[in-house]
Amino acid sequence: MIKKTWQLYFFNELLKLSLLILGSFYLLYVLIDYSAHSKTFNQEILPFYKVLCYYIFQFTKRLDLLLPVALLISSIKVLATANLRGEILALVTGGIPTRRLLTPFLFAAFLATSLCYANYQWIAPKSLNWIDHFEQQYFQSKKDEKNIVYQVWLEDNSVLIYQNYNAADHRFFDVFWIKSLDAIYKMRWLDLSTLRPKGKWVDYFERNEKGELTCKTSLEELELPDIQFKKGNLTAAIYPPKNQPIGELLKSVAQKGDLFKLHTMQRQEAVVATQLYYKLLMPFACVLVVLGPTPFLLRFGRNLSIFWIFAASLTALITFFTMMSSSVILAESQVIPPLIAIAFAPLLYSILITYGLKFVFFQ
């Protein structure tokens, strides 16, 4: 906790500057993105509230990148200013250990880390699903949309193949339910919002004695109680792993015993494990960006190269983001086991930062 006056001062300065940078960067992003999509927004005559919701949800999507950048710039600015004004020297001379000067900065870093975890668990999943639906509806071309099909495995090992899913109505559109090799249902849409799933404009195909699939019945509406699914499992299958909360990903990986698995796994299992490790480790970037520049900012001397500290720190952060993005690709394609691939960059940076901090914490 931060109780002392100087701790509150540093924390307030850090908070104000972080919010200013966060807001400024995101406003710049909104202006660039809106100019790129302004033609679509005008053609579709979108209500203002939809555009506003889109950019609010985009903020939660970009939060794990924007927050470390804002925290890095603000922490360097606050520490560098305090050093140049002699405030840090005065505090150290007054008997405060150098390592204790980082208390308000670490407190802010752990708050930011907690915010990232909360975002991954409760906010981002809903935002990402809404964004995907919005972009599919307004940005995606009809030609591309016709070529996309999805599949979901149900509890009885039957398969749903569909083209679109409406999350608001819980309906699949242009659906094939492959109950078995000998029984297939074709539907215009399938409604799973009721206790007994219901299909609309249903054609039932059955294999005859000659081995041919023939249409046995065609109905305008048909209840399909044989479709077996658990709501949680179905939701996890419908939405891509990057849109799922940490808890759901952890449950999926733990059930299959892949939590610390280092050998080859199935493609979908590798994707789920990769997204889990990414969401567990990425928030720690908020701690790394605070600790990384510290050894250079707490040095006492006449020549404090603030420009080079900013330049080196931002370069290191961009490199970290690039390494994490590359690691996701390598892990999902199983070139490297997901755990090793995703943990490499945070572990490497932690070792380098720890080596630099020993001159601060143990002097």
Name the descriptors.
single chain; about 375 residues; alpha+beta; 2 domains; 12 helices; elongated
In a nutshell, what does this entry contain?
Helix content is 61%, strand content 14%.
3D structure, described in words:
- The protein has helices at residues 5-44, 48-84, 87-93, 103-138, 142-146, 231-238, 246-255, 267-281, 285-291, 294-297, 306-332, 338-361; strands at 150-153, 159-162, 164-166, 171-180, 183-191, 198-207, 213-223.
- It is of the alpha+beta class and 363 residues long.
- The protein folds into two domains: 5-140 and 270-361, no CATH class; 156-228, no CATH class.
- Strands 1, 2, 3, 4, 5, 6 and 7 form a seven-stranded antiparallel β-sheet that branches.
- Helix 8 packs parallel to helix 12.
- The longest helix is centred in the first third of the chain and has 40 residues, at 5-44.
- It is elongated, with a radius of gyration of 26 Å.
- The protein starts with a helix and ends with a helix.
- The mean pLDDT is 90.
What is the percent of helical residues? 55-70%
What is the total number of structural domains?
Answer: 2
Number of helices: 12
Shape: elongated
Q: Class by helix and strand content?
A: alpha+beta
Number of strand segments: 7
- Tell me the Rg in angstroms: 26 Å
Q: What is the overall pLDDT average?
A: 90
Order of helices and strands: HHHHHEEEEEEEHHHHHHH
Low-confidence stretches: none
The fraction of residues in strands falls at: 5-15%
For the sheet with most strands, the description reads: 7 strands, antiparallel
Cα-to-Cα separation, first versus last residue: 24 Å
